[in-house]
Amino acid sequence: MDLIYRLLKIFRLKPTQVIILSFVFMILLGTALLMLPISTTNHQGLAAIDALFVSTSASCVTGLTVVDVHNDLTIFGTIVMLVLIQIGGLGIMTLATMVVYTLGYRFRLQENLILQESLNQGGQARLAELIRQIIKYTFAIEGFFAVVLTIHFVPEFGVKAVGYGIFHSISAFCNAGFDLFGNYDSLCKRNDDYFLMTCIGLLIIFGGIGFTVMSDFVNRRRWKKFSLHTKIVVVMNVALILVGTLLIFAVEYYNPNTVGNMSIPAQLAQACFTSVSCRTAGFNTFDLSHAEQITQLTMIILMFIGASPLSTGGGIKSTTFFVIVLSMWTVFRGKSELVVFGRRITRELRDQAFAIFTMGTIWIVTAGIILSTIDGEVHELEEIIFETVSGFATVGMGIGITSEWNVLGKLILALTMLVGRVGIMTFMLALITQKNSVVKYPPEDVMVG
C-alpha cells in the first residue's frame, strides 16, 4: 500500500485511476509473458496484438479469444492465463475495495460505484471482514468444484484431470468462459454431459450473484433478514434465468442446427444453461452462429444486464436494471418514490442507475459503429453488435468472428473489455475531474416525451 500512497502523492492520482492502472499493468504483464516462446506450442510466442487481446480477455474475465488455449498454448501459457483469470476475478476487485478504505479517501456519491453500491460499509473493521469473506468463499467454492470436476474428468484425461478440474473451476467461478477442450468448441461436443453442465452452471451462478449475497445466505439465512440488495439480486437472477430459458427454448425448439433434434428435457437443459451462461460467463453448448436472430437478441439483452454487483461478472448489473424497471413502473403508476420490499430507494441511486445504463448503451453503440466501419460489411450488423456486447459485458460468447478482426478491431474490443470490467462509471470518473459547486440555479420545466 505504500506504493499506492506514493503514486497518489506524486502523480495526484484518484483511486479510480489507480484501479484502472492496476488492470493495465496486469494486462501488459500478461501480454509480455504470452509473447515468450515458452508460452506457445510453436515456440514463437503470440504476436503482440494477439497477446494483448488474450491477456485483456483473461484479466477482464471475458473469454473472447483469438487463440485456441488447448492447442496453441503450452502448460506455462495456460498457467499464465489461469493466474490472470483468478486475479481479474478476485484480486483487482479486492484491491479496489482496499484502495478506497485503506487510503481513507472519502468518495463522492458517484464514486462509491467503485464498490458496486452493495458494499456500503461503515468502517475499516467491517471492510477487512468482507475481504476475508471474499477470499474464503472464492477458494472454498473453487476448491470444492475443482475436486469434483477432477474426479469427473479422471476416466477421460487420467492424471491431466487435475489441471482440467482446477482450470474449469476457476474459469467458471470467475465467469471467464475459457476452456481446455480445444477447437473453439466450448461445451458443444459435451452438451450431453449434464453433470459437467450442472457444475459449470452452479459455479457461474455462485460467481455472478456477488459476495455480499453469499455472506447473507451464510450468516442471515432467512429471507426476512436478508438485505434489500440480496432480495433484489435473488429475484432478478431467478427471473432472468427463467425468462431466458423459456424464450430460448421456445425459439430454438424447431431449429435442427441447435437443439431441435434433442428431446424436450434436453432442450430445456440446453436453454437453461445458455440463459445462465450468457449473462456473463461465455460457455456455450451449441453453435451460436446457427441460433435464430430472436435467440441472439435475447442473449444480447441478458449479456447487457449481466451479473450482480461485487461479483466476478460484468454488464450494467442486475440491480441497475431492476432500479430502472422499478423507476419506469413507478412513473406509470404516478408515484414519486421508489419502494420495494418495504424499503425506499433514493433518488441518487436511481440517477446512478440511469447514468450507467445510458453510458453503457452509448459505449456499445459507438464501439459497434467503429467496428462495423472497420469490418467493411463483411459480417452482419447483429453479429458485430453481439461481439461488442459480449466484450463490454465480459461474457466472451462468440459467434465465430473474433479471430477475424484486424489490429484496430482487436484494440477496440480490448478497450471495450477493460471498460466493461472496471465499470463504465468508474472509467468515466477516472477521466473526468469533478468539482463541487455551491451555486444553486433556479429551476425551470422542460417539455419531454
Q: Could you characterize the architecture of this molecule?
A:
The chain has 449 residues and is mainly α. Helices cover 62% and strands 1% of the residues. It has 17 helices and 2 strands. A two-stranded antiparallel ribbon has the order 1-2. Strand 1 and strand 2 form a beta hairpin. Helix 5 packs parallel to helix 7 and helix 10 packs antiparallel against helix 12. The longest helix is centred in the N-terminal third of the chain and has 34 residues. About 4% of the residues have low confidence.
In summary, what is this structure?
This protein is mainly α. The protein has 17 helices and two strands. A two-stranded antiparallel sheet has the order 1-2.
Topology, pairings included?
Elements: H1 2-11, H2 15-34, H3 48-59, H4 69-72, H5 75-102, H6 124-157, H7 161-173, H8 194-209, H9 211-219, H10 228-252, H11 264-277, H12 293-305, H13 318-332, E1 338-340, E2 343-345, H14 347-375, H15 381-392, H16 407-422, H17 424-431
Antiparallel strand pairs: 1-2
